[in-house]
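Record pair follows.
FIRST:
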Amino acid sequence: MYVRDAKNRDEVWLLDHIEEMALDDAAFRSRDYVIAVDEETNERAGFGRIRIHKTDDGDFCELTGIGVLPSWRGQGVGAHVVERLIETAEAEGFETVYSLTDEPGYLTQFGFEPVESSDVPAKIRDRLAAKQETVQPDAVATSVTVDEFAMPASLREGFKQASPHEAGDESAVEDAEDFGIDPESATYKYDTGR
């Protein structure tokens, strides 16, 4: 496995998976993304991007659109995407990186800490409000200084051996929603009344 910059030919794949995972695609540009790739099969496993916000008060860096395909989860793919994005942010001269997420627990393992919305720059606060209104109502602001970012050893090792889960794994279990059925309102031919 390795993480590379996205190429123009990755755009359709990215857009499909961003939509499938209901991730934020505001100001989408494929060149802002990185993609985790299996070096043996060339299969794409995960992605993420940094978004730089330029303001009169300075520039701010946000990690966003981080996603891992279900068959690749739990193997350090997302961790390596985040690491690459932090390295990119540091190379761009940022000391602090923000992320707006409804899964802050995932990022805390790398050193991110939740931040009160009143304590983030106005542009990041506006992005948080927009994200809460559109794709992630439970999103919160988190931040990390690039020097405090840390990769857990277990995730580094897992990434070296990562491979897609087989069809019989729990991640492959299909449910009613996979077939477009709303289980809350669906009626069935042989409803037993239970």
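SECOND:
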Amino acid sequence: MGDGGKRGILATTVWIVVCGVALYLATAYLFLPALWTHREHQPGLAPGPFVTTTPQGIPGDPLNIGLVGSGPEVVGAMAAAGWHPADPITFESSAEIGISVVLRRPYQDAPVSTLMYQGRRQDLAFEKAVGTSAAHRHHVRLWQVLATGVERRPVWLGAASFDRSVGVSHRTGQITHHIDPDLDTERQVFIDSLTAAGVVAQIYQVTGIGPTLAGRNGGGDRYFTDGEISLGVLRPDLAPSATPPERRPSSRGVAFKQRVWPALVAAVRALPFMSRG
């Protein structure tokens, strides 16, 4: 083969490589993010980030749930669904939660640590105890992020997670709760509790942090999530209704992602380090 033929093969190879790299970049950084991003149900939400921080600025729990309604409606809905407002952090409440964990005594209003979003601490915090002490509990922090959404009512976003044990923060060494890594399951627990109470008129999703398989929160705990935020639109009068809430569909790209996501989650949960937190 002559020099001209070799140069032709080299040029073709370079062209194929360049096209392959360009296709990868377009797919990974333009097409898939656009395909999996949707906020058409609540376009007033900022583009992000949808992750809280600790008061020290360390990335915390991602936002994964939301509510549409006034402050009193949110408080009333949470009460109807069996959630208890968390006590403020004081010397007395800190001592009480310690006693609850050590002696396995119930403390349904145990305080939760402070997280920040958009430069401010949570507006509201609630929890549901599991078992005989405050070591295990469902809990959620909520921030009002829009004074008026598409429903002409306030929009709240929150971070819901399940405390599975008490231990030491991997980042600061302070005593803290460790969360279960599966945030999507806890998101569903939250929505299901409000649905069972009959106070939700409509449910839909918007994009949050995006697909995350190996995240870490402010305590250094691992988490994974498909990155969606489930919002429940509260019934204005909070009168319980046996009618199931309307479920607005997600975009096709998000629907496709959620079909393949369980397989990815199963693979991640099988990894030994996920069980250690």
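COMMENT: Residues 1-28 form one domain.
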